[in-house]
Amino acid sequence: MRLINLRPPSGAGRLLALLPFIFVALAYLVGSSVRLAANPSDKLLPAFASFADAINRMAFTTDTRTGDVLMWVDTVASLERLFAGLAIATLAAVVLGVAIGLVPYLRSLLGGFVAAFSMVPPLAILPILFITVGLGEAAKITLIAIGIAPPLVRDMALRVADIPRQQIVKAETLGASTWTIVLRLVLPQMLPRLLDSIRLQLGPAWLFLIAAEAIAAEAGLGYRIFLVRRYLAMDVILPYVAWITLLAFIMDVGLVALQRRAFPWFADARAS
Amino acid sequence: MSLISVRNVWKEYHDTVVLEQINLTIEPRAFVALVGPSGCGKTTFLKMLLSEERPTRGVIELEGKPISPEPTADRGVVFQRYSVFSHLTVLGNVLMGADLQAKTGAGRFFGRTFGRERAAAVEDARALISAVGLSHAEQKYPTQLSGGMQQRLALAQALMGKPKVLLLDEPFGALDAGIRADIHVLMRKLWNDRALTVVMVTHDLSEAFSLATRVIAFERRRNEPTDGGRYGATITKDYDVWPKRTPAALDAILSLSGRDDPQPAHATRRDDPAETGVAS
Ligand SMILES: Nc1ncnc2c1ncn2[C@@H]1O[C@H](COP(=O)(O)OP(=O)(O)OP(=O)(O)O)[C@@H](O)[C@H]1O
Ligand SMILES: [Mg+2]
Fold first, then answer.
1. Which domains does chain B have, with CATH numbers?
2. Nearest CA in chain B to A189
3. Higher pLDDT residue, B198 or B193?
4. Which of B46, B68, B70, B143 to mutate to test the interface with A (most CBs of A within 10 A)?
């Protein structure tokens, strides 16, 4: 049979999915033990036991200096910034995206501006943010929002403009106004698609968050990673990176689940 | 007074004349079928009746007044595709006609009916859903329906908006012959029971003659390649279908089933294979 027609049975499929993870872990283990055998004080590839120590120290013990559990404090600080930035960008996507996609006058007014603005490299304006709104939370949240809002807005505008003309005309012939078309047709059809584009922007959102935290913060996952870098503390950095990845992955899975629960019609509608 | 009157309408795109000199009056309760070769401007004409396109010249009047320059609730429509809303169930789709014309202040703001208005709307919607044979599928989403069921839903949805005229652009063009025959029976019944005025574009001559009270053909009188778009299509034929289809003569009509009807039209409606025996 052709390769493209061979399907793994469901159990084997899951096992296959695990293989690359196991492979990376094994490769790390081998590399780590080789280096540690040559030089027991090597810091580059710590043994798993050192990770356990570091995780225990960071995530389950109160810090003697601050009295906080550092990883917990870092996680809360980072997630607050991330969610605030995502919320602002999502709101902008809904308002501007629908406006630009649906209303010709607003498209003429704002379409070009948003297209131009989205070309500004967000990290290049980080210094401007620090200068204008200070080193506090506002700068970090603004960076995330400014970084991911333009692609969200443009994606939303394109998708709204892609709604078949017949659907809009149909709503008009049923007596809808512009506002009720937005409320009863455009928004319900766009929200599940918005969840898709938020999923795609989660990666950039984390990127901007960590970049901002690396430069100026008192707490946060990115802040911690860049702080302990000075001591080459790979035993802390790698668990933090894994933790960030896990958080991002959970958010992605959560958005998929939300989409499926809240918009049961969407999976079929997208396929057709 | 005639319901629709089209006076000396021309439609040009850039320097191409698509339609020229269209003159037409349509009486209330007429069922007009528009036929003609592909690309002659049938859809364009229907779009002008709908105000989705504007005539380059001429006027279109509804009940003696020029039609609104944008689509409004006095003209209902069913397209070949994309007529129903994929995010709403069958009931939700049909309710849209009432929701979007809600009379209370909150209802107008939210595009929804509430309270007693809602209850009345649900009752009307259920009656329409049952009339098109979808009662058993009330809570299904359009993607879970067959093509024929989707078009029947689209009819019910359009009728819920209480339009003065129903505009159909090849509404059954994508359906299998058998399902199309069923929906013809339904269409004729709706036309009779609900006192509709219908303008339907179709490719299918037998469909035109088996459903309509009047068949109008659009054609280009001159169609030389060298004309370069200087001549458009116009009405070349206008038949009243005989025997005359009036609501009073319904029984006579129904017993004279079209040649593609699978069974006498006054027998109970046949549904799509998936739903046989379930329809209420
Ligand atoms: N927006 C447009 N711009 C330019 N030309 C157009 C436009 N819309 C339609 N036309 C032209 O007008 C003519 C009539 O098109 P129309 O869609 O009305 O034909 P039709 O009779 O509905 O054809 P069919 O039976 O294939 O559906 C075609 O030659 C088409 O190319
Ligand atoms: Mg057409």
1. 28-55+73-276 (3.40.50.300)
2. B87
3. B198
4. B143
Mutate to test the interface with A, among B70, B74, B85 (most CBs of A within 10 A): B85
Cβ < 5 A residues, ion ligand 2: B 43
CATH 1.10.3720.10 for domain A71-271: yes
Q: Which residue carries 């003696």 as its tokens?
A: B64
**pLDDT for residue A178 is more than 70:** yes
Binding site membership of B40 for ligand 1 (Cβ less than 6 Å): yes
Residue matched to tokens 């027991």? A40
Give the ipTM of the model, two decimals please.
Answer: 0.84
Which atom of ligand 1 is found nearest the CA of B40?
A: 21
Give B178-195 pLDDT, tens digit per residue. 888 888 989 988 898 888
Taking an 8 Å cut-off on Cβ atoms, the answer to whether B75 and A176 are in contact is no
* Position B97, amino acid: G
**B245-264 pLDDT, tens digit each:** 665 554 444 444 444 444 44
